[in-house]
Specification:
The protein has 16 helices and ten strands. It has 600 residues and is α/β, with parallel strands linked by helices. The strands form two sheets. Strands 6-7-8-3-9-10 form a six-stranded mixed sheet, with helices on both faces. It has a four-stranded antiparallel sheet with strand order 2-1-4-5, covered by helices on one side. Strand 7, helix 14 and strand 8 form a beta-alpha-beta unit. Bound molecules: adenosine-5'-diphosphate.
């Protein structure tokens, strides 16, 4: 790695540390301040006891005078330490855990808010997605480590300064030993940090695979296949191989590291401090009697403590400093990512349906170069029921995604009542639409909340919406029945079709002029589908409805059908008109009708 790159990385790590400390300070200033200052201060009594009290007591004992004074000093120190410990315990066991909870709450609130606001297209971007996953899974732990690292560095600096001052007053020569010890430890420490970084990098591919293996065994998505096949054994074998390869890769690094640790820790400490200082100061204390026995003990203890502090700063901290810096970098990138779908000032919420127009709309997904919609022109009049049909990949979902501003058009424009939808304030724009997606999600919340999509559902309205969606299941606690097991062990599990009906009820519940339904009947049986169609026509009388369906029996009732192929509208008209045209729609319809006939 070039010198320039290394310096840049270090200053980035420092900047990332400051960013994280700033973030913590902004959200829980007392936590940060208390954590850093208290701990650094709490270390001082220990230093004083270890160096100053020891010296005092030994001096008094060896000089044989005034044992009473020594006893008083011991008691005073003991009281000092007990009070210190009491404060310590209250601080660490009560104050800090509460403040930590506050920090985690604030941190995740900010992350969730950012994740929900980000452009939908960000999910197509693996780098962004990785940053999001990292932020979600490990940022609280990293924040804690950044604080703990900073505290440790400060504590060790204070320790070095305090003890250094005491030693200088006894014999500055001792610092020469300490200096030599440090001069040896620092470069070896850097070497250790370097090997550790190489080791972490070499482990990354194996760790990524390990994450995949655990996902396979804990996610429900894989549970059925694992039980019905031998896929579990297949994956376990891969896992075994991965662990084997990981071990083979890590071994040379471990071999390098133990030697370096041995050199760093043992050599300077043993030779310079344990042997060097003992001989030098022992000579002065015993032979020339220039210093007292207390001075001897204090300098020996002090020099050891300084060396240990320097050892800690140069090895462990150097390693985690870089590693935490890299994680914070990803968090920062996630938090600072700019949205591309920008809202305007228009805050119109239409009470009644108005005309929607697609004008020469073309669209290419970001990061790709093939247009998936080409020069689309269509006009949807108020209260119309519009069906989008076509083969898989024709561009139907993309078209509704553009209307919902999950993506912005690449060319052309979409207008609602003549106004370009990019002029709208985005949350306000979305209030005009009810949307049911083919990959809809139910949330761990009550049925009522799942239909209303807020935490204050109107029970009567929810029931009406569920009835319009033809949801007939008995709910043990009516609309207050909890769905999913996360919040309630007796949470209700729904079948695919039932879940879809709850999702459809959302469109009936929301007072808005437009409904977009992407494959609303995909999980429904033919009877439920028929009933849904009837209900939809009735309940959605006051709305414009745009729906996508592969089952062409649902499109019969549409006021206008748009048949898409390769991103273009190839046929337009009512069911009767298109059947008369005897084109692609008629072909698809007849094919499906024949299938139904065969099945029955
Ligand atoms: P339909 O709803 O008609 O089945 P889509 O609108 O989902 O079709 O997809 C149209 C085309 O766009 C397909 O070729 C699909 O592969 C592509 N596509 C869909 N989503 C993305 C995406 N997020 N990134 C890149 N290409 C996409």
């Amino acid at each position: 790695m070039s010198k320039q790159k290394k310096t840049k990385e270090k200053s980035n790590s420092l900047r990332n540390y400051l960013f994280m400390l700033g973030f913590i300070c902004k959200h829980t200033p007392f936590y940060l301040f208390g954590y850093l200052v208290f701990d650094v201060l709490a270390n001082i009594p220990w230093i004083l006891t270890n160096v100053v009290l020891l010296k005092y007591i030994i001096d008094v004992v060896t000089s044989g005078v005034d044992l009473y004074r020594a006893a008083v000093a011991c008691v005073a120190f003991a009281v000092f330490i007990i009070i210190g410990n009491l404060l310590n315990t209250v601080f660490y066991e009560i104050y800090l855990p509460k403040e930590r909870e506050k920090l985690y709450f604030k941190m995740y609130s900010v992350i969730y808010e950012k994740a929900a606001k980000m452009d939908y297209e960000a999910y197509d971007n693996p780098a962004y997605y990785n940053d999001l996953v990292l932020a979600m899974t490990s940022m609280s732990e990293r924040a804690q480590q950044v604080m703990s690292n900073t505290k440790d560095i400060l504590t060790n600096i204070v320790s070095v300064l305090t003890i250094g001052t005491v030693i200088v007053t006894i014999d500055p020569m001792c610092l020469v030993f300490v200096f030599l010890c440090v001069a040896f430890m620092v470069p070896v420490g850097r070497l250790i940090a370097k090997v550790n970084v190489q080791r972490t990098e070499a482990m990354t591919p194996y760790d990524r695979k390990n994450l995949y293996f655990s996902r396979v065994f804990y996610l429900q998505d894989y549970a059925k296949e694992l039980r019905l096949s031998r896929a579990g054994t297949m994956i376990e074998r891969r896992y075994q191989k991965n662990i084997h390869d990981r071990l083979a890769t890590i071994s040379p690094y471990l071999a390098k590291q133990w030697k370096l640790y041995f050199c760093q820790e043992s050599m300077p400490l043993t030779l310079l401090i344990y042997l060097g200082i003992t001989l030098f100061m022992g000579y002065k204390a015993i032979v020339t009697k220039e210093i007292s026995m207390g001075d001897f003990a204090a300098t020996f203890n002090g020099a050891t403590a300084i060396s240990n502090s320097v050892f800690a700063i140069t090895s462990w901290f150097a390693i985690s400093f870089r590693e935490n810096g890299l994680y914070v970098e990803k968090f920062k990138r996630f938090m600072n990512a700019k949205e591309k779908i920008i809202g305007g000032d228009n805050k119109t919420v239409h009470k009644k349906p108005v005309t929607i127009r697609f004008e020469n709309v073309s669209f290419t997904y970001p990061g790709t170069d093939k247009a998936v919609l080409k020069n689309i022109n269509l006009e949807i009049k108020p209260y119309q029921k519009i069906a989008l049909v076509g083969y898989n990949g024709a561009g139907k979902t993309t078209l509704t995604n553009l209307l919902l501003r999950l993506y912005d058009v690449t060319e052309g424009r979409i207008t609602v009542d003549g106004v370009d939808i990019r002029e709208w304030d985005i949350p306000t724009y979305h209030r005009n639409f009810a949307a049911v997606f083919q990959d809809f999600s139910l949330f761990g919340a009550t049925v009522g909340e799942n239909v209303a999509m807020n935490d204050h559902p109107d029970a009567e309205k929810v029931k009406k919406a569920l009835a319009s969606g033809n949801f007939q299941k008995d709910l043990p606690e009516d609309t207050n029945t909890i769905l999913l097991r996360e919040f309630d062990e007796s949470g209700l599990s729904l079948s695919g079709g039932e879940a879809q009906k709850v999702a459809i009820a959302r469109a009936f519940y929301k007072d808005c002029p437009f409904a977009v339904l992407d494959e609303p009947s995909a999980n429904l049986d033919p009877v439920a589908e028929y009933t849904l169609n009837q209900a939809m026509t009735k309940a959605a009388e006051n709305k414009t409805v745009i729906f996508i369906s592969h089952r062409l029996s649902t499109t019969v009732m549409a006021d206008c059908i748009y048949m898409l192929e390769n991103g273009e509208i190839v046929e337009t008209g009512t069911h009767e008109q298109l059947m008369q045209q005897n084109g692609k729609y008629a072909y698809m319809f007849n094919l499906q009708a024949d299938k139904y006939k065969e099945q029955n």
